[in-house]
Specification:
By secondary structure, this protein is of the alpha/beta class. It folds into two domains: 2-123 and 312-325, NAD(P)-binding Rossmann-like Domain (Rossmann fold, 3-Layer(aba) Sandwich); 127-307, Dihydrodipicolinate Reductase, domain 2. Helix content is 32%, strand content 24%. The chain contains ten helices and 14 strands. The chain has helices at 11-22, 55-60, 72-84, 107-110, 126-142, 160-170, 201-214, 248-256, 275-278, 309-325; strands spanning 2-6, 29-33, 42-45, 48-51, 65-68, 88-91, 103-104, 120-122, 144-153, 220-227, 234-242, 261-263, 284-292, 298-305. It has a six-stranded parallel sheet, with helices on both faces. Helix 1 (11-22) crosses helix 10 and helix 5 packs across helix 10.
Length: 331
């Protein structure tokens, strides 16, 4: 089993390597792949020095699985080249997510859709992953009619330069600008580029990807995505309107029994999900569960997860684990 991590020097790539080690992903050979400016660098990993290689060499090596976290344009160019030599690509960018011929996978929900013919597999958007993890068991029982979502997203979702901007601003240095405005002591209702309909691309990702993962285009969804000067994870306020009447205790039981979901909902003791506590954890945390009395069959919930872990790296590694266990990606 030969595995490549493409974009190995980036935030998500580094997190993938950490998750691979933690979860003891079974491989015989590991290839660390990055852009030309990083080729030749030595990365110390798991007690061994790895020389970073370029894309051409990585394709020539014909890995069984390649986990991409190198941006959409890189994926559009190179994922088909890897697939052509028999590699199964797990891509973390938005490049392939809404392609009708590509599977959009959250393993706990729809990994069973994968076959050996799926050579390019899309990893969903970080904010979508944590949300559908909480919603899938509820949709299965009650049916979701409508979602109203507000996100509160970490600067780590933008990358290392955004983290640097935040930390520099805290020291009074405003010279580096990844965002159009300062992020420290501020809130930006602007993630990704604005679309013709007035929504941002991030907001529309949540709309479109949720429908695809849950396999239901009838769900009405609206979202507002917001960037905060926070590290550790994304938070989401979600208002869910169900097709059927629900029982709040049953909601909590369904979530408690859902793989990868942890309920933290004890307001008497000020226990609720926070990114500070979700940091470096793979679970999706759900709390502030309460009935919305303004609308029939409606529920309010608060969902938090580490966007670099379950929102990106962990989900990709879990897909790889499934492929290896089911022998779907063995050349």
């Amino acid at each position: 089993m030969k595995i490549a991590v493409v974009g190995a020097t980036g935030l998500v790539g580094q997190e993938m390597l950490k998750v691979i080690k933690e979860r003891k992903l079974n491989y015989d050979e590991l290839l660390l792949v990055a852009s030309p400016r990083s080729v030749g660098k030595i990365i110390e990993y798991n007690g061994k020095g790895y020389t970073v290689i370029g894309m051409d060499d990585a394709v020539a090596a014909k890995p069984d699985i390649a986990m991409f976290s190198a941006g959409g344009s890189t994926s559009l160019e190179w994922a088909p080249k890897f697939a052509a030599v028999g590699t199964t690509v797990i891509d973390n960018s938005s490049a392939w997510r809404m392609d009708p011929d590509k599977k959009l996978i959250v393993p706990e929900i729809n990994a069973n859709e994968l076959t050996e013919n799926n050579k390019i597999i899309a990893n969903p958007n970080c904010s979508t992953i944590q949300m559908v993890m909480a919603l899938a068991p509820l949709h299965k029982k009650y049916g979701i009619k409508r979602l109203v979502i507000s996100t509160y997203q970490s600067v780590t979702g933008t990358g290392k330069e955004a983290v640097d901007q935040l930390m520099n601003e805290r020291k009074g240095d405003f010279s580096q600008k990844v965002y159009p405005h300062p992020i420290d002591m501020n809130v930006l209702p602007h993630i990704d580029v604005f679309q013709e309909n007035g929504y941002t691309k991030e907001e529309m990702k949540m709309v479109d990807e949720t429908k695809k993962i849950l396999g239901d285009n009838s769900i009405a969804i609206t979202a507002t995505a917001v960037r905060l000067p926070v590290m550790g994870g994304h938070s989401e306020s979600i208002n869910v309107e169900f097709l059927k009447e629900y029982n709040l205790d049953d909601i909590k039981t369904l979530l408690n029994n859902a793989e990868g979901v942890v309920v933290e909902d004890d307001i008497a003791n000020n226990i609720y999900p926070m990114p500070l506590n979700a940091h470096q954890k793979d679970e999706v945390f759900v709390g502030r569960l309460r009935r919305d009395d303004s609308q029939p069959n409606a529920l309010n919930m608060w969902v938090v997860a580490d966007n670099l872990r379950k929102g990106a790296a962990t989900n990709a590694v879990q897909i790889a684990e499934y492929l290896i266990t089911k022998k779907v990606a063995v050349v």
